[in-house]
Amino acid sequence: KFKFIILQPDAVLPALKELSVCILLRRNFATHWTAFVYKAPGSKDIELGLGGISSYLTVWLFGQEHHIEVELKLDEWHSVCLTWSGQAQRLRIYINGTCLHEAPVKPSLRQELAQNGTLTLGVSHYVDANGEVQQESGNNLLGDIGLFGIWEREWGAEELRRPSCADGDVVSWDLRQWKHTCPPVPDNSLYCGKYIVKSFCYIL
Ligand SMILES: *[C@@H]1O[C@H](CO)[C@@H](O)[C@H](O)[C@H]1NC(C)=O
Ligand SMILES: *[C@@H]1O[C@H](CO)[C@@H](O)[C@H](O)[C@H]1NC(C)=O
Question: Which cysteines bridge via disulfide bonds (predicted)?
Answer without folding.
Answer: 22-81
